[in-house]
Amino acid sequence: MSFPLPVRPLRDARLLAPEPDGAPRGPDPSGPEIIEIAEAAGVRGRGGAGFPLAKKLRSVASAAGSTRFVIANGEEGEPASVKDRFLLRERPELVLRGLALAARAVGADRSYAYVSDPAAARRLAGARGGDLVDVVRVTPGYVAGEETAVVRAVGGGPALPTAKPPRPWQAGLGGAPTLVSNAETLAQLALAVRLGPETYRRLGTPESGGTFLVTLSGAGQAPVLYEVPYGVPLRELVTTHRGTAAGVTGMLAGGFAGGLLPPSALDLPLTHAALAAAGSTLGCGAFVLLAGECPVGVAADVAAFFDRENARQCGPCVTGTAGVADVLAGLTVRSATWSDVARLERWGQALAGRGNCATPDAVTVLVGSLFLHHRDLVGAHVDAECERCAVSPVTADTKFRISLEEP
Amino acid sequence: MKVVIDAAVCDGKGYCKRFAPEVFGLDEWGYGKVLVDEVPPEHMAGAEAAVEACPLQAIRTV
């Protein structure tokens, strides 16, 4: 069965190129050599934070303790992202090869693959190298892919984030140093070893080597999974996708973690630094293009998602996220007051760093971006009913979810 | 020394702020919040007392 979304490379197909048949040949580096390759290639994490992989590998490899673990994190909780499930379903051997390399690099005793997608679990178990890995299934959820939730769930506990420090590389599974790495990051490590750092770096920028996967959706266009070199302007990708960037009125960037961006963001190069400088994040590489939707309604949709997906364990996030979602929903039906708007802005700011995972921080970015780019429009929702929100009310699930279910 | 409040455990009793107001505050919703990156030497004793006093044992030193 083929993947339900079209997949297209913007330049060279690396991750998107079909895997060669037969046993993998080519370089077979030692643990320290693997870390050197990751460093020279400039491989950064593809799960959201963009942390340099070599640094993480080195931390786990040199952490105190005689036991170590590696976990491929394939729980893609971002509703507008499909890239990890593509790799796990269609390129499982590349992910497993990366996991084996990471295990060697840190000297791991045991390897796990952590997924919620049933098709991905089946493909991993049946793929070459799959017999060496424990596949752990989890119920899908936004917080389930957070690294401390991953460690807890693999250890048999609930998939809920814990307070940091310690981070998993310090004390993870059973207290042992544990590498938790996104599925695409591991596939990229396998590519960097296969191609060598020099070839790997022929695409990308000095700060981020190689290509990355972008799930592009919205603006009335069927979603497509692209493989894009770091540094390409977003406009070029959007123009390839829909023929023109005209009519794009904004976007959700970095999945749901990067808030709303205005059309001027089309001129940003797709790098971690450029998105961070715009107050956003490249996150998991998912972009939802907007074409005329009301930004207040979009923010209300995303805030309602965060409220539903809330782990219900950290007080400030439980209360603050619900409050933010309530005011935004109220604005879409003209039931919010000016004092609600003031509270929305204040609570949005107050949520930063107030939980064990980054959910409250994502709410902060969302609300902050709404006020930064659309302050007058927010006020207009107090004064008069919004016609666009009236025809597109907040729904039981986010409107921006990309379904991979079989029809 | 750093102090960390486990946000999943804290329910806003407020003892931490009472014992070491220079180190702990309360957020918008009344939950405990660490105000400093590193605990300054002169507030070490207060911070340690707060760790002891928290009824939910939600504070750890790192």
What can be said about the biggest beta sheet of chain B?
2 strands, antiparallel
Q: Which segments of chain B are poorly predicted (pLDDT under 50) over 5 or more consecutive residues?
A: none
CATH architecture of the largest domain in chain A: 3-Layer(aba) Sandwich
What is the succession of H and E elements of chain A? Answer: EHHEHHEHEHEHHEEHEEHEHHHHH
Outline of chain A = globular
Give the total of beta strands of chain A. Answer: 10
Please tell me how large the radius of gyration of chain B is. Answer: 10 Å
Give the overall pLDDT of chain A as a whole number. 96
- Any idea of the CATH topology of chain B? Alpha-Beta Plaits
CATH architecture of chain B: 2-Layer Sandwich
Describe the SSE topology:
The complex is a heterodimer of chains A (407) and B (62).
Chain A: E1 7-9, H1 31-41, H2 53-62, E2 69-73, H3 83-90, H4 92-106, E3 110-115, H5 118-126, E4 134-137, H6 147-154, E5 178-182, H7 183-195, H8 197-200, E6 211-218, E7 221-229, H9 234-242, E8 250-252, E9 260-261, H10 272-277, E10 286-290, H11 295-309, H12 315-332, H13 338-350, H14 359-383, H15 387-391
Parallel strand pairs in A: 1-7, 2-3, 2-5, 3-4, 6-10
Antiparallel strand pairs in A: 6-7, 8-9, 8-10
Helix pairs in contact in A: 1-2, 1-4, 3-4, 3-5, 4-7, 11-12, 11-14, 12-13, 12-14, 13-14
Chain B: E1 3-5, H1 15-19, E2 24-26, E3 32-34, H2 44-53, E4 59-61
Antiparallel strand pairs in B: 1-4, 2-3
